[in-house]
Design a protein that fits this description.
The protein is α/β, with parallel strands linked by helices. It contains 15 helices and 23 strands. The chain folds into two domains: about 270 residues, Aldehyde Dehydrogenase, Chain A, domain 1 (3-Layer(aba) Sandwich); about 200 residues, Aldehyde Dehydrogenase, Chain A, domain 2 (3-Layer(aba) Sandwich). The longest helix has 20 residues.
């Protein structure tokens, strides 16, 4: 399978001739492929191609652009199973989850195609006779789309497709850990017949080409999903050129359980939100704040669920948790677990890297529940990005909400309670971009997606909020008398 892949620039597959290998997370001996180690000159070429293409692409009628996207989505729909298998081999998640990415992507893309007919402005009455006042939307220009490794198919779609429908052109820069999925998407873009330069792919280390991409003056929008550390740097670079920036970053998402009768259902919802994709989700529930009198029952229920998970290669039948993406990520997760022990927390279940047989070929970490956690511990404050869930006991709903809001992050939050007053208080006062009542942090295809504080900046992605980022407003005063 060790094919050599290239960048896609101005309608051609090309690179500067330097490459690196990507390995299967479930079997480090298996090379998925060789991918370009791009240089700044490659990045500048991709941006220039996108800039030239913008001059004609932006002038197409919105429905003409939508027709290109419709052809692409039809191809995507045909390939969902194949793409899911490839994703599974590149990123490691179980096959059912992997196939779910392109399947959900098809739904989201079809919705976004409809935005071509909803790029509405406004018309307002004038204060003067003989004048009409209108506000219209125009595409912002070249968009740099920088995507993460944990959703290597869905996230590029969420950035590319609304940009294209709005009339922007794109330079896609995927995570260097998972570039194959983006290559596969660009192959479909090519097959769908998009004009040269409308969508470009640049592969390489962010440390080598990230600043060049974000700092190019021809780039007029940067949409990024990834760590808060990198997002902060991107925002600084974008500010130098007054570029629109959309950031989706980290999370330390709380779930409050307080005066909720169905503890088993709460445990099931929380575990699903915590351990899907081996916990490698920015919206994963990572900390539980539970009423002291209900804590033991909840902890025992989650422990029982954790023992039912089956760890293994994503393509293996029955696997429910795959390996983490690579050894670097695994070492970081295990470091947090060890630090929790040192700080006095208790590992109620899990906490180990599995070894022997197939487990020696990748980095497999048991779903882990840490109890006896206090607010000052690292595992209670920092994003772990792995299959680790903490429990902290509280004595009042007010305390639970205060602890939940004490994080620097504000992406998603959950509450499980039967008390209506608690529900309304949580809806009003939870400091997060997405609030979930009596279910886990599962988002839906057409709802806006994003966070506040250190979790997000700019208009939310997905749904109707896409156009708020990918278009600028132009105000027109027309005196006709």
């Amino acid at each position: 399978m060790s094919n050599t892949y290239e960048n896609f620039i101005d309608g051609k597959w090309t690179s500067s001739g330097k490459y690196y290998d990507i390995h299967n997370p479930a079997d480090y001996d298996e090379i998925i492929g060789r991918f370009p180690l791009s240089e700044p000159r490659d990045t500048d070429a991709a941006v220039l191609a996108a800039h030239k293409a913008f001059l004609t692409w932006s002038r197409l009628l919105p429905m003409e652009r939508a027709q290109y996207v419709e052809r692409f989505v039809a191809l995507l729909d045909e390939k969902t199973n194949y793409l899911g298998e490839c994703l599974c081999m590149e990123q490691g998640k179980p096959l059912a989850e992997a196939v779910g990415e392109p399947s959900r992507g098809v739904k989201e893309c079809r919705y976004v195609i409809g935005e071509a007919t909803r790029l509405q402005g406004i018309s307002l009455p004038s204060e003067r006779q003989g004048v009409t006042n209108t506000v219209v939307r125009e595409p912002i220009g070249v968009v740099a789309a920088i995507t993460p490794w944990n959703f290597p198919l869905l996230t590029p779609l969420r950035k590319m497709i609304p940009a294209l429908v709005a009339g922007c052109t794109v330079v896609l820069k995927p995570s260097s850990d998972t570039p194959w999925c983006s290559v596969l998407l660009l192959e479909l873009i090519e097959k769908a017949g998009f004009p040269s330069g409308v969508v470009n792919l640049i592969i390489g280390r962010g440390s080598e080409i990230g600043d060049t991409l974000c700092g190019n003056p021809l780039v007029r929008g940067i949409t990024f999903t990834g760590s808060t550390v990198v997002g902060r740097r991107i925002n600084k670079i974008g500010a130098e050129h007054f570029v629109k920036v959309q950031l989706e970053m980290g999370g330390k998402n709380p779930a409050i359980v307080y005066d909720y009768a169905d503890i088993k259902t709460a445990a099931k919802s929380i575990a699903a939100a915590a351990f899907a994709n081996a916990g490698q989700r920015c919206t994963a529930v990572s900390r539980v704040l539970v009423k002291r009198q209900q804590a033991e029952e909840l902890e025992q229920a989650i422990v029982a669920i954790c023992k039912e998970y089956k760890l293994g290669p994503g393509l293996e039948k029955g696997t429910t948790i795959g390996p983490v993406v690579n050894k670097k990520a695994g070492d970081s997760i295990m470091g947090y677990i060890q630090k929790a022990r040192e700080q006095g927390a208790y590992i109620a279940v899990g906490g180990n890297r599995l070894s022997g047989g197939v487990y020696d070929k990748g980095f497999y970490i048991e779903p882990t529940l840490i109890t006896g956690v206090t607010a000052d511990m690292s595992v209670a404050r920092e994003e772990i990005f792995g299959p680790v869930l903490t429990v902290q006991r509280v004595d009042s709903f007010e305390e639970a909400l205060e602890v939940a809001n004490s994080s620097e992050y504000g992406l998603a939050s959950c509450v499980f309670t039967d008390i209506q007053a608690n529900i309304y208080t949580f809806m009003r006062e939870s400091q997060s971009g997405m609030v979930h009542i009596n279910h886990g942090s599962v988002s839906e295809s057409f709802m806006p997606f994003g966070g506040i504080k250190m979790s997000g900046l700019g208009p939310f992605s997905i749904g109707t909020t896409n156009k708020d980022f990918f278009t600028n407003l132009k105000v027109i005063y027309n005196q006709y008398i």
